[in-house]
Automatic annotation (TrEMBL):
Keywords: DNA-binding, Transcription, Transcription regulation. Residues 174-270 form the HTH araC/xylS-type domain. SMART domains: HTH_ARAC. PROSITE patterns: HTH_ARAC_FAMILY_2 (PS01124). This is AraC family transcriptional regulator. The keyword Transcription applies. It holds the Pfam family HTH_18. The lineage of its organism: Bacteria, Pseudomonadati, Bacteroidota, Sphingobacteriia, Sphingobacteriales. It comes from Pedobacter miscanthi. Gene3D superfamilies: Homeodomain-like. PANTHER family: HTH-TYPE TRANSCRIPTIONAL ACTIVATOR RHAS-RELATED. GO terms for molecular function: DNA-binding transcription factor activity; sequence-specific DNA binding.
Amino acid sequence: MMLQNGYHKSLHSPKLLRNFYLGKNVAGEAFVSDHIFSYIMSGTHEVWVGDRKYFFGKGDYRFFKRNQLTRFVKSTQSDGFRSIAIHIDQYTLKEMASEHGLKVYGHYQGEGVKLVDANGMLKSFVNSLNIYADNDRLDHDILTLKTKELVLILAELNPVLKHMLFEFSDPGKLDLEAFMNGHYRYNVPLERFAFLTGRSLSGFKRDFARLFNMTPGRWLVKKRLTEAKYLIEQRFARPTEIYMELGFLDLSHFSYAYKKAFGKAPSKRI
């Protein structure tokens, strides 16, 4: 069973989300378009950003920077997975930057996921959210005020968080080879890859062809299958355990592509 409530007025508004899952673990991938602050009340949460893995559990306060591809597994355990989160939109942040003179300089290049060491103010703030999360008709103005309160607490608590919150530039042009080698498992449109590497779609395709001497689609399939072959033959992984992790939509598609590439079914290691 899953319950997810979202409260929002427009695309230029913060959102308060309450997640509650019972039963099977929940897995998937997502593009983080807004900054997200969240608190885990029960269960565990594994998150991959690129090829880096993070593990969070009950009582953890987390911050996710915007414009990231993520993969996740939410483990329900005996009492389910429960979390509460605020999505912090750019409109609200730009309004605050103007009101309070909050400026940062330079492009942030560190990790986009942070475990937050909470102080008394942050703990009290999170406790107050439980009241609002149970209100199915939360007033937009109240949510905006609560979001601004959260931003000011985070900016005061950690200068790194302040830098991430108040940097408004889109992704700069990245090392394409390094980015793709870290993100080939993500099953997202080429337009998303292009945006995250700081390129137009045409520029992304042109640079990709120059670097890899093949189309992005062909390269992604080849890269995923090469990794699958290694995991199956060297790490004795089962096809059912890895096909989704490697970006294939279903097992039959994975098996067909694997057999076409290597002349044998993925269930046969030799």
